[in-house]
C-alpha cells in the first residue's frame, strides 16, 4: 500500500501543496510548528477514521477558510486509487473513493490503512485505560468496519443512556425506561466485546513474538483483557450477565449519572514475565512494549490484507534510543513499508539510512524535496 502523491488545499497551515512521495521512507524535516504533523494528519485521515490527534473536522480548516480538500493518489492491493476528501462549513464532509461518494468515511479503510506512532503511544503502558482502549479500537476498526460500526452504535446508546440517568436523578424518568435502554445496550456491548476479544487474541501472539525478538528472548509479554463485569467462558451468557451487572450498580449509576459497566470502561492489561508492566517494567521495557504493540498492529493488518499499512512516525525518533530506533527502521525497511517520519533534525539517522530515504523540507506550510 502506498500514497503516490497528495494535494492539500486550505488544510491547516497549507494554502496549497501538491507533492509526490517515495514508496519507501519519507522524512519530513523542519523546525517546530511548521506543518510536519499537519501533513501527517492529512495522510492519517486517508483511512477515514478521523484525525490521529483527535481534532474535529472543522479544526483542520485553514484559518478563516470555509473549506479544505485533500486529494490523494496511490496503490492498494496493486490497484490504483484516488481519494477526494472535502470538508466545508456548509456541506460538512464529502469523501470519495475512485469517484464514488462513501456513505461513511471509514469505508476508506478498504483502500488505505495507516498506523500512527506518536510519543503518546510510547506512554501506552503507563497511560490511562482510555488510551489503551483507543489503541485496541483503532487497530481492530481498521480491519473490521463492522467493529467500528458496532462501537459507534454502542457509544451513541451509552451517551443516550447517560442522559437518561441524569433525568432519573432529577426524577424526570422511570426505571422502566432505563430497563428498555438496557435491553438495547446489552446486545451492542456484547458485540463490541466479542469482536474486541477476538481482535486481541489475534494481535497478542504477534506482540509476544516481536517483544521476544526486541528483548533477545529474555522476557515474555502477555496481553489480557480486563472486563468491567465477569466474562463467563460461555459467550451466550454475556448479555444476561451484562444486564445483571448493570442492575447491581443501578443506584450508583443514577447517583453518578454515568454508565459504569461495559466495554467503554474496560482495559487492556500488559504483563512482562507475569508481572503487570505498568507497575513493574522499567521505562526502557515500557518503550519496547509500546514499540512491540505498534509493530504487532502492522503485522495484524498484514495478516488480514496481505499488504502492509502506511506507517506514520510523528516525533518519535528523537524519543527512542539509537538501538530501538534502528530496530524500528530495520523492521519497516525490510518489509518495504511506506513510512512518513517527522523530525526537527537528521541527527537521529545514519548517513547510510538517509541515502535510502526521500527528504522533504517543511517550512511555514510549504513543502519541497531536498537532499540534506
Ligand atoms: N487550522 C489551522 N489553520 C492554519 N494554521 C494552523 C491550523 N492549525 C494549526 N496551524 C498552524 O500549524 C502550525 C503547527 O503545525 P504542526 O503541528 O504540523 O507543527 P510541526 O511542524 O509538526 O511542529 P513540531 O515539531 O513542533 O511538532 C502552527 O504554526 C499552527 O499555528
UniProtKB/TrEMBL annotation:
The keyword DNA-binding applies. One of its GO terms (cellular component) is cytoplasm. Keywords: ATP-binding, Cytoplasm, DNA damage, DNA repair, DNA replication, DNA-binding, Nucleotide-binding, SOS response. It is found in: Cytoplasm. InterPro entries: AAA+_ATPase, DNA-binding_RecF, DNA-binding_RecF_CS, P-loop_NTPase, RecF/RecN/SMC_N, RecF_2. One of its GO terms (molecular function) is single-stranded DNA binding. GO terms for biological process: DNA replication; DNA synthesis involved in DNA repair; double-strand break repair; SOS response. Pfam families: SMC_N. Residues 22-364 form the AAA+ ATPase domain. Belongs to the RecF family. PANTHER family: DNA REPLICATION AND REPAIR PROTEIN RECF. This is DNA replication and repair protein RecF.
